[in-house]
């Protein structure tokens, strides 16, 4: 039985629903390659919208369009994993447009913040990957339940904040640069980071069970979703800290 992942795109029974497996199966190396391809496409889209923003062009349509298109594609991929080889590259391109514009707007307010957020994201990724490979961290049942519950709670909090925004209200301290607000961001960053452990476990389990080859793209997609979330939360955390200076 596949363990529970806090990432909503990586579900318990996803491998069981894909039918009989052929000899051309999912591998860890194959998933790593697909992840690099997805990351390269995402960075290409990000650099494009970043360059337009820095050139004084209005990138808001690309940011909003990229966010909406990315969300729609993510939902399709999540419910129909067989579409992953075709839709994941498109998802990465649209998500890149969104992230590039978002990053450029943060950079215009806080010089150097995007590089710091990117480096911190990669350092956290590599540190957790090393800890997972060395079995310093294990995706036990209780660990999975804890991360899943925390992730669901954060998602619900953001949803409530979004709804309250229509009435001119907000969740206390969520967007504040106070010490409590920074503490909340630290907790959210920690939960996002721990989701990486569940992603690693999901990919390893898929390879061990001989999942279909297209699941490599699905695994890369799930990992990219977590990395994007972690990077955005790093931006938010750093912006709160820098705004106190």
Cα distance spanning the termini: 50 Å
C-alpha-based Rg, rounded:
18 Å
State the total count of DSSP E strands: 0
Integer tally of domains: 1
Bulk shape? globular
Largest sheet: none
Quickly count the helices: 7
**Fraction of helical residues:** over 70%
Q: What is the N-to-C order of secondary-structure elements (H for helix, E for strand)?
A: HHHHHHH
Instruction: Estimate the mean pLDDT confidence.
Output: 89
Pick out the low-confidence regions.
1-5
As a percent range, the share of strand residues is under 5%
Which structural class fits the helix and strand makeup?
A: mainly alpha
Plain-language structure description:
By secondary structure, the protein is mainly α. The chain has one domain. The protein is built from 7 helices and no strands. It has helices spanning 28-54, 60-79, 84-109, 113-133, 141-165, 179-208, 215-242. Helix 1 packs across helix 3, helix 3 (84-109) packs parallel to helix 7 and helix 4 crosses helix 7. The longest helix has 30 residues, at 179-208.
Short description:
With 245 residues, the protein is mainly alpha-helical.
Offer a few descriptive terms.
single chain, 245 residues, mainly alpha, globular, disordered N terminus
Question: Secondary structure elements and their pairing?
Answer:
Elements: H1 28-54, H2 60-79, H3 84-109, H4 113-133, H5 141-165, H6 179-208, H7 215-242
């Amino acid at each position: 039985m596949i363990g529970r992942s806090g990432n909503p795109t990586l579900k318990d029974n996803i491998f069981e629903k894909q039918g009989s497996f052929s000899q051309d199966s999912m591998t860890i190396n194959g998933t790593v390659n697909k992840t690099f391809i997805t990351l390269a496409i995402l960075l290409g889209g990000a650099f494009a919208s970043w360059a337009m923003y820095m050139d004084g062009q209005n990138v808001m349509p690309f940011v909003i369009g990229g966010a909406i298109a990315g969300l729609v594609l993510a939902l399709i991929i999540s419910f129909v994993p067989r579409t992953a080889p075709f839709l994941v590259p498109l998802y990465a391109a649209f998500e890149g447009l969104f992230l590039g514009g978002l990053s450029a707007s943060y950079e215009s307010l806080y010089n150097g913040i995007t590089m710091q957020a990117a480096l911190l994201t990669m350092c956290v990724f590599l540190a957790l990957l090393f800890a997972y490979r060395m079995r310093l961290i294990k995706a036990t049942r209780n660990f999975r339940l804890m991360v899943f519950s925390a992730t669901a709670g954060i998602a619900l909090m953001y949803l409530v904040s979004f709804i309250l925004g229509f009435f001119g209200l907000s969740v206390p301290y969520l967007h504040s640069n106070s010490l409590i607000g920074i503490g909340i961001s630290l907790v959210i960053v920690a939960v996002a980071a721990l989701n990486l452990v569940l992603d690693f476990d999901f990919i390893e389990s898929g390879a061990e069970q001989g999942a279909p080859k297209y699941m490599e793209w699905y695994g890369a997609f799930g990992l990219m979703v977590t990395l994007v979330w972690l990077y955005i939360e790093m931006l938010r955390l750093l912006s709160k800290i820098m705004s106190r200076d």
